[in-house]
Amino acid sequence: MFRIGAHVSIADGLPAAVEHEVELGGNCGQIFVGSPRGWAVSEVDADEADAFSSAAEAADVGPWIVHGTYLINLATPKDDLARKSLDCVQAELDATAALDIPYYVFHPGAHTGAGEATGVENVGERLSELDVPDGVTLLLENTAGKGTTVGKRLSDLEEMVATASYGYDDLGVCLDTCHLYAAGYDFTDADGMDDLVEEIESTVGVEHVHYLHLNDSKHPLGSEKDEHEHVGEGEIGGAGFRQFVNHDALRDTPMVLETPEDDKGFAWNIERVRELRTGD
Q: DSSP class of residue 68?
């Protein structure tokens, strides 16, 4: 079954997040377990976790994924920020496990002048300090490449995993379409899409891409600017998304939207993606 959904709030409670997803027309979803711009991680109430799991199962909404706070920086040369980031990631991983959610994703961070190679190495080494709970896969998200952020190239993600002590036993990848395009990956026609999949296969491996973020880009190819647009309304366009969501290598991978929340909203984007799918 084609799995498409959107990021939803847990402000009304975890079980309500499932209801919100269903109302949007989604059948998988993404949440935060704390403020996306803070360090605090919400304590998971066991009864609410059970209610969330039961609601998700009854509505056939899943798999879910937890997105890490935007403050996390494992690439940093600063030991204090690295420690704070690791503590936060660990707490979010534990919350993910408590909710019986199989995936957790975060942005690797920025080297802030230490050098790209050092930043990539820092991420891999610090991943080794984490205790990834059973039943959870930690996903690295590719980045647009703005400033000193690391993870712009798929080969960078592969190196991070290779440096980590447990490799793909507990790690995987989440690909964001806006980030890919802003980083210079042009998948807007059949040849470009095939080239992208070939690079995925030669680096992280298609089998290790567990989740997809579907976002159009407000800025041109290779801009390194991370600004999301509604599906088909940006520089990637409808034809580009048609290539992406229908390619045999990725079409069975769950997809969630992080598009702007304005007059169109998530429901519009979910329907737009469904219109672009073929063969379902």
A: P
CB count within 10 Å of CB 262 equals: 8
Q: Tens digit of pLDDT for each residue in 215-264? A: 999 999 999 999 999 999 999 999 999 999 999 999 999 999 999 999 89
Asked if residue 128 has pLDDT above 90, the reply is yes
Query: CA-CA distance, 234 to 71, in Å (whole number)?
Result: 27
As beta bridge partners, residue 65 has: 30, 103
Q: How far apart are CA 217 and CA 226, in angstroms?
A: 7
Containing H/E element for 204?
A: none
Structure tokens at 265: 């909203």
Phi and psi, residue 197, nearest 5° = -65, -35
**192-222 residue pLDDT tens:** 999 999 999 999 999 999 999 999 999 999 9
Q: Rg (Cα) of the chain, in Å, rounded? A: 18
Q: What residues are paired with 255 via a beta bridge?
A: 4, 212
Pull the structure tokens for residue 27. Answer: 């059948």
Among 5, 47, 7, 43, smallest CA distance to 22 is for 5
Q: Please say whether the dihedral angle defined by the alpha carbons of residues 184, 191, 229 and 38, taken in this order, is positive or negative.
A: negative
Would the pLDDT of 124 be above 90? yes
CA distance 221 to 27: 30
Q: What angle do CA 166, 142, 17 make, to 5 degrees?
A: 90
